Amino acid sequence: MITVRVPAKVNVQLGVGGLRPDGFHDLANVFFAVALGDEVTASAAGPGEGVTLTCSGPDAAVVPLDGSNLAARAARLLAARHGLAEPDVRLHIDKAIPVAGGMAGGSADGAAALVACDALWQLDTPTATLLELAAELGSDVPFALLGGVALGRGRGEILDPLPVTGTFHWVFAVADGGLSTPAVFRECDRLREEAGTGSGDTDVPTPDADAGLLAALADGDAVALAGALANDLQSAALSLRPSLAATLRAGTEAGALGALVSGSGPTCAFLAKDAEAAAAVAEALRASGTCRTAHATHGPVPGATVLP
Ligand code: ATP
């Protein structure tokens, strides 16, 4: 039996280019891995059992337990890559990452299942191959393997690790219900059309990583990072879920250095001065009635890791 711990991500910068003819957007995506994470356990199953899935945690009821689950897809993809037939494996997801929350929880489970099955089946797959399989599963999966802080380009799957100093303290306000990532991108395009700027890849400049933000990460400067947080999907998430404005305000009024919607939302992320300030912001958010719950956590942390 192998258990893998895997982090959620927050995008400290999410620059979104125009809609490409292939339906994707070019991104300048600074991923940051946080200690709020899932655990995926892979254990051997009897011959003919196939891939079975169970899930525990507060959001377990809304996690799909069929072949569409990214953990199950990862197990099958890894087996196929090694020329193995339909694998027999039991996967259990202990889920702490909010579902459809803009924190790439499904992608995290996909990355964790790749690592867990690789260890269980003693395949010793090279990291480069795992990263390739991860990119096949989805744009956010490679980063969950890598962890730390990284710049994602293209659809987000071309990754370069970034230097960081020290630990940053975060709070995540979890909303009731999720937001569909494709719907948020469509709303972003619609708002750009409405504003008259156009939404195509010839209308919108190709986004680039912000030099000030990269310097703040490298210097371990939380105040500077808070000032540089930027998410081009935030106005679209707020347009689809106007109540998030009150969540962002509540965390800021409680002393957060900076706030933004995490990825496509609806989870909101707050940067705090230190662990004590993060605990206070989380407490204030829970009391504010503007979110379902709030978690104080920290990062960066490593990507999918086998637990001893
Ligand atoms: P992203 O920001 O990467 O688009 P997200 O964090 O907003 O994603 P996820 O929690 O990854 O959202 O879930 C998005 C959808 O993926 C869910 O609604 C669910 O149907 C599907 N899904 C597939 N596998 C999983 C999984 N292991 N855990 C949660 N959702 C999963």
Task: Provide structural commentary.
The protein is globular. 35% of the residues lie in helices and 28% in strands. Helix 2 (105-120) runs antiparallel to helix 3 (127-137). A hairpin with a 5-residue loop joins strand 1 and strand 2 (25-44). It is of the alpha+beta class and 308 residues long. Strands 1, 2, 3, 4, 5, 6, 8 and 12 form an 8-stranded mixed sheet that branches. Strands 9-10-7-11 form a 4-stranded antiparallel sheet, sandwiched between helices. The structure holds adenosine-5'-triphosphate (ATP). Adenosine-5'-triphosphate binds at residues 63-64, 68-71, 93, 99-107, 109, 140, 178, 181, 263-264. Adenosine-5'-triphosphate is lined by residues 63-64, 68-71, 93, 99-107, 109, 140, 178, 181, 263-264.
Tags for this model:
single chain; binds adenosine-5'-triphosphate; 10 helices; eight-stranded mixed β-sheet; 308 residues; alpha+beta
End-to-end gap = 11 Å
The proportion of strand residues reads: 25-35%
Cofactors, ions, other ligands: adenosine-5'-triphosphate
Q: Segments where pLDDT lies below 50 for 5+ residues?
A: none
Mean pLDDT: 96
Class per helix and strand makeup: alpha+beta
Number of helices: 10
**Considering DSSP H and I runs of 4 or more, what fraction of the residues is helical?**
25-40%
Tell me how many strands there are: 12
Radius of gyration: 19 Å
From the spread of the alpha carbons, the general shape counts as globular
Q: Largest sheet at a glance? A: 8 strands, mixed
Oligomer: single chain
- Which H/E pattern describes the elements? EEEHEHHHEEEHHHEHHEEHEE
